[in-house]
């Protein structure tokens, strides 16, 4: 009898009483509150009287950007992608707020596409189609034709997704043309960074996701309220990657906000302070920094230039039993106790199959499991086992009870750190990102935008 090595987070959490915060789709809210205190140059009164009843949050979501129209259909189809990512669990009020944010995103996207075309570096049609096919295959596990049908079914379209892809490619083309050539990193700077890295061996480094929302003195309060709403939605199960791709105004938006592996010293002081107290899987923010607000998600954590035990390759045997349909809790508890006693008596991995047969258990082996790919609750347990030892039983009546037996372990080699070229690329990316934010702000400032 064969079976898949099945280690579900659901089963582990039921046994160990721990639940991980899931980060899933996206939503954002607008707030009518104006920033106070920092608007002195504009001479805005503290309690203004409004003449008229125009509310920008209830107008129809269409706009003309430098003569190019963003239609209500464009907004609805892009919105449908986000609603689908949330499993459709977005309230009517939240959907309306989200619709206005989508419009703002489409305006930025249009400006980026227009600027790339003006600079003679537009996104090539072949690039767009190639990326679309890759997204269909890798992210959805479907052919482009199947994904097109899926998009139509949820109220979106292939054209909407391709437009987003076109905007991302155009923006990257533009940055390579107008920003990257003017970012100069000297050999001395790179060597100094490598020396600092070597000196920091053994200290912590962090893999962080960031959603950055730009803000001015005038709209700071509103942007902060929007950021708080995003945090609420993330805590309710929204995808951090999806939120970052749609709403982050940093150049890392195209990779889901992933900053890669960095040390706290590479972050602004405010972000470093927040990240330093986070554990993997935690969310922090909104944190005010120069130019706006950031929401952080700690993806992972490790020590600089030090082998991480979680990168060890484990050879495991899973020993499991299933419960017949209709099994009561009392019956399951009794059989689980018998299972645990039998497992405890197993004399090493070579004895696993023989003992499992006696109680009708199944044994499945896998020799190439990286410790960090297992549920967090199991990682420390397995890394503290000796060969031939097992984890405590875990599972449920629905999924059965199982243990993992450690049959071998290949520890990782000590990391040598980035070489000269890799360090230079990291430093260049950081400076390009900062200049890209300024570039987009300039495009917004100079744009002619008409709303309908």
TrEMBL record:
InterPro entries: OMP_Chaperone_SurA, PPIase_dom_sf, PPIase_PpiC, SurA_N, Trigger_fact/SurA_dom_sf. SUPFAM superfamilies: FKBP-like, Triger factor/SurA peptide-binding domain-like. Residues 203-300 form the PpiC domain. GO terms for molecular function: peptidyl-prolyl cis-trans isomerase activity. PROSITE patterns: PPIC_PPIASE_2 (PS50198). Keywords: Chaperone, Isomerase, Periplasm, Rotamase, Signal. It comes from the Bacteria. Residues 1-35 form the signal peptide. This is Parvulin-like PPIase. It comes from Novosphingobium subterraneum.
């Amino acid at each position: 009898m064969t079976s898949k090595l099945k280690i579900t987070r659901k089963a582990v959490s039921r046994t160990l009483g721990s639940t991980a915060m899931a980060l899933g789709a996206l939503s954002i809210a607008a707030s009518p509150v104006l920033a106070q205190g920092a608007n002195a140059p504009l001479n805005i009164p503290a309690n203004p009287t409004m003449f008229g009843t125009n509310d920008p949050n209830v107008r129809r979501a269409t706009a003309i950007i430098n003569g190019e129209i963003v239609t209500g259909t464009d907004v609805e189809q892009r919105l449908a992608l986000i609603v689908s990512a949330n499993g459709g669990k977005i309230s009517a009020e939240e959907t309306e707020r989200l619709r206005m944010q989508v419009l703002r995103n489409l305006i930025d996207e249009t400006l980026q596409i227009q600027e790339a075309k003006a600079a003679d570096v537009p996104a090539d049609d072949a690039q767009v189609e190639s990326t679309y096919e890759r997204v269909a295959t890798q992210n959805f596990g479907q052919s482009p034709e199947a994904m097109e049908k899926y998009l139509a079914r949820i109220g979106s379209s292939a054209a909407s997704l391709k437009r987003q892809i076109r905007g991302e490619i155009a923006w990257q083309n533009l940055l390579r043309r107008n920003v990257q050539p003017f970012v100069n990193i000297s050999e001395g700077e790179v060597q100094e960074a490598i020396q600092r890295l070597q000196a920091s061996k053994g200290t912590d480094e962090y893999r962080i996701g960031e959603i950055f929302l730009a803000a001015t003195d005038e709209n700071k309060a509103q942007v902060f309220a929007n950021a708080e709403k995003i945090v609420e939605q993330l805590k309710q199960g929204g995808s951090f990657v999806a939120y970052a791709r749609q709403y982050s105004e940093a150049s890392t938006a195209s990779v889901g906000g992933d900053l890669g592996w960095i040390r706290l010293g590479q972050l602004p002081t405010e972000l470093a302070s927040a990240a330093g107290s986070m554990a993997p899987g935690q969310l922090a923010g909104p944190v005010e920094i120069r130019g706006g607000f950031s929401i952080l998600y700690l993806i992972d954590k490790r020590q600089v230039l030090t082998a991480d035990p979680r990168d060890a390759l484990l050879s495991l045997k899973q020993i499991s039993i299933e419960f017949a349909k209709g099994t009561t809790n009392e019956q399951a508890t009794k059989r689980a106790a018998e299972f645990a006693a039998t497992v405890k008596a197993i004399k090493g991995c070579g004895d696993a199959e023989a003992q499992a047969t006696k109680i009708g258990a199944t044994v499945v082996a896998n020799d190439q499991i990286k410790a960090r790919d297992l549920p967090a609750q199991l990682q420390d347990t397995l890394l503290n086992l000796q060969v031939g030892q097992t984890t405590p039983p875990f599972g449920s009546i629905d999924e059965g009870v199982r243990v993992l037996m450690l049959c071998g372990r290949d520890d990782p080699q000590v990391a040598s750190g980035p070489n000269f070229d890799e360090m230079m690329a990291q430093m260049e990316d950081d400076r390009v990102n900062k200049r890209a934010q300024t570039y987009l702000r300039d495009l917004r400032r100079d744009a002619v935008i008409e709303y309908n």
